[in-house]
Amino acid sequence: MSTRRATAILLLVLGVAVGAAVLAGVLGPKFKSGGYVPPDAESVRADKVLAAEFHGGAPNLVLLVSGESEVDSPAMATEGRALAERVRSWPGVAFAQSYWDTGYPQLRSQDGKAGLVLAQLSGDEGAAQETAAKLVPAVTGERGQIVVSATGSIQTNVEAEDWSKRDLLAAELIAAPLTFLILLFAFRSLIAVLMPLVVGAVAVVGTAALLSVLSRFIELNIFAMNITTALGFALAVDYSLFIITRFREELIHDPGSAVRRTLSTAGRTVIYSAITVALGLAAMLVFPLVFLRSMAVVGMIVVALAAVAAIALLIPALALLGPNIDRLTLFRRRSEVAGGWGRIARTVMRRPVIFGGVVTVLLVLLAIPFGRAEFGTIDDRVLPARSAAHVAADQLRDRFPGVETTPVSIVLPHTAAESTVDYAARVSQVANVRAVQPVPSERGTWLRVAAGANPDSAAGRRLIADLRGLPAPGERLVTGGAADLVDTREAIVDRLGWAALIVLGSMTLLLFLFTRSVIVPVKAAVLSALSLTASFGAMVWIFQEGHLRWLVGDFTVTGFLDLSTLVLVFCLAFGLSMDYEVFLLSRIREEYLRTGDNEGAVAEGLASTGRVVSAAALIVAVVLGVLASSGLTMLKTLGVGLAIAVIMDATLVRGVLLPATMKLLGPLNWWPFGSEVGDVRGEERVPNIANFGTTKSVG
Questions:
Q1: What integer pLDDT is reported at residue 694 of this predicted model?
Q2: Which of 1, 448, 660, 670 makes an SS bond possible with 356, Cβ 3.0 to 4.6 Å?
Q3: Is 518 helix (H, G, I), strand (E, B) or coil?
């Protein structure tokens, strides 16, 4: 590549990056809350009917009103009614009711010094969130003789968006210096270290611009910026690591063709890596949850953006730098680091049953807590304990035990009230139903059900199943927090097999194309599934059961995990693990074809690629793991889960189980194309998709 052409390409890419930064600053992404329940679920349809026909349903904004006087005192009653009327007349409020309007005893605190105003904000989740962002500051705080605080699903989403923005900046400030140190250990040269960070910064800017545009056309969850920014930065730095490592090796062998060889080898590696991760994310498209589908679409585009940024920036930059890539070296590189992985592999292969057995038992033990997994829906407890909505919700749970912010409701859209008397009586006899209150309208009947079971509990799920199994006098729709959870679980479980088939099938096919082996891809899938299950067990032990809060940061223990978060971790972690598997197996396959020595090929493959893969995995773990610093439990769970999965995969699986199983399988690893051994001669004919960072040429 000529100096003029390289300079032109580099300036063009940097110009596009500057334009992207301007675009992101001018437009800014628009996020929406929710998307965790299938839009066509029975519970969602019931909520729409309640809002349209009954102007009711579960309140999405709850105002807690307290004061020094009793709630029934004239002063408190006057203030409470005035507040309720102000909320009721606010644009975008569908309905509002208070203790002082209705006299409902459940809206009065047990100590008699607080009352509630329940409101439902109209429109979709985005419109309701915009209304809450204006209404809540106008009515909360000290107001005369009362103090008003806000909670509810919409206010939780408003505060979650604010926290996610703050957490994004904090995570970037933590991740950047840690990444710098890892790269410094890997490269020892300031120039080589700074280049991946520049690529990562360009990827982050491009991600922000991308989300600003996409948010105008598709619904983006409030956590999209945090997750995709972390993923884009991590992958961009990883891809830069692969490219620069290969370029430095090519400079030793043939400086004149170093750029061309780097592009044809490490450049191809980056492309295949992006395809691998994108395939893992694509599996989320089968789920009918807006959250997962939008994360799949955005994630796949961000992965492609990271790959393009790495290639488009580094190749011309390396052409201009040439041998100067190693200028400003701080301390001498130690080649023994790479060889250490080869020695570990040979040690493992001398006693594969012992080493492999110990690691397998360890992973199984780590996976055991996953058998105790419980799943629930996201609520105010996803916020930090000190957040306003969380504090207000805690008071609601403590002082108003009879209030349900996500009550069970049965909607009979086309059934008159007089036709539901017998049905309502039968509903009242269902286990965990304490009371039934019919609410008639011109177009149907709404049964308010006072439930005696927690929505996130097994009893709550059984209640929904019993109500939906009860014969009704007409069309019947059941909603509520427990119904949302049941519908979401069914939607995910029903399609989980298809998602797993997409992930496993695509990864197995990709590895088969790389290795031309049937056994190796199947083995790789099994090992990755084992390590991923162990990661899930660790997530249950930490977040569901509340261990290690001193290490990962304080959070509210709810006794359950969010199911959509686990799906996201599964797809991302599996894609990343197969990504590293491709790098290692490509090199191992190359050595086996050259020598016909299975054990030697495994040792040489790990020696050649182990350092780069381990550094890449550590960078991904750090960048995603810093999400543990987030105050939002969902981001904390995602970051810790992915960090555990990546580190476990790069060490226990790739460092121990891979060489142990390949030693035990021997020549069977390469069935049915093992007969090609010895056919490969010369560097150009080697399938060097992942031949980066090697310490010697082939042939």
A1: 35
A2: 660
A3: coil
Domains identified in the chain, total number: 4
- Which of 557, 544, 523 has the alpha carbon at shortest distance from 665? 523
Q: Whole-model pTM?
A: 0.84
Outline where 626-656 has alpha helix (H): 633-648
Q: Are 579 and 652 in contact (CB under 8 A)?
A: no
The pLDDT, as a whole number, for residue 2 is 73
Q: Are 581 and 662 in contact (CB under 8 A)?
A: no
Residues 6+ apart with CB under 8 A from 578: 276, 280, 507, 510, 511, 524, 528
Residues spanned by the domain of 415: 389-480
For residue 280, the model assigns a pLDDT of: 86
Identity of residue 342: G
- Based on the domain organization, do 604 and 658 belong to the same domain? yes
Closest by Cα among 573, 585, 575, 587 to 647: 573
376 pairs with which residues across the strands?
562
The answer to whether residue 656 sits within a structural domain is yes
Same domain (yes/no): 509, 467:
no
Q: State the pLDDT at residue 674.
A: 57
E strand segments, 555-636: 561-562
Examine the domain organization and report whether 529 and 648 are in the same domain. Answer: yes
What DSSP line would sit under 262-302, residue for residue? HHHHHHHHHHHHHHHHHHHHHGGGGS--HHHHHHHHHHHHH
Q: For residue 334, give every residue at least 6 positions away whose Cβ sits within 8 Å of its Cβ, in sequence order, or none.
A: none
Which residues of the chain carry a pLDDT beneath 50? 335-338, 675, 679-699
